[in-house]
Write a structure and sequence with these properties.
Blueprint (H helix, E strand, L loop, with lengths): L23 E12 L2 H8 L8 H14 L1 H4 L10 E9 L4 E12 L4 H19 L7 E2 L3 E6 L6 E2 L8
Antiparallel strand pairs: 1-3, 1-4, 1-5, 2-3, 5-6
Length: 164
């Protein structure tokens, strides 16, 4: 198998050829968060936001984003995802919503970008729906938390020496 690169033989940007890579079960989990004012958090957590169920809309947006990652990120492979899940944890002590996005497939390339895109778009959707109450919300950090499959096998955030 040749060295994987986004450059073709002429040095131009191109999609990596993964034809020779082995098909394996692959998954990735990404995390993000949105920290907001007490007023915005109360409306969101009580389901009293005038725009509706913020987390339900953010969940759907995150799922749709994972499925459309190849349309958003240049040179990403279009993937037939077999599972996408977006979960939220409310952290009232910090007025924060933690987001976890999980993607899975059997394929020749990983789903890290799909999980990261999913978590990012879910966070942006929460921001969009709550910005009238708190335009100073903070999104992030957004990061890969875990991946399985492929040449490197299982990796998780603690393996990189990064504390959660």
């Amino acid at each position: 198998m040749s060295h994987l690169t986004h450059l073709n033989e002429r040095g131009e940007a191109s999609m990596v050829d993964v034809t020779a890579k082995e098909v394996t079960d692959r998954s990735a989990r990404a995390q993000s968060s949105v920290t907001m004012s007490a007023d915005a958090f109360a409306l969101l957590s009580e389901g009293a936001h005038r725009k509706g169920d913020v987390l339900a809309v953010a969940r759907i947006a995150g799922i749709q984003a994972a499925k459309r990652t190849a349309d958003l990120i240049p040179l990403c492979h279009p993937l037939a995802l077999t599972k996408v899940a977006v979960e939220f944890e409310l952290c009232p002590e910090d007025h924060r919503v933690d987001i976890s996005a999980f993607c899975r497939l059997a394929g020749r390339t990983g789903v890290e970008m799909e999980a990261l895109t999913s978590a990012s778009v879910a966070a942006l959707t929460i921001y969009d729906m709550c910005k009238a109450v708190d335009p100073a919300m903070v999104i992030g950090p957004t990061r890969l938390a875990e991946k399985t499959g492929g040449k490197r096998g299982h990796w998780q955030l603690a393996d990189a020496g990064i504390q959660e």
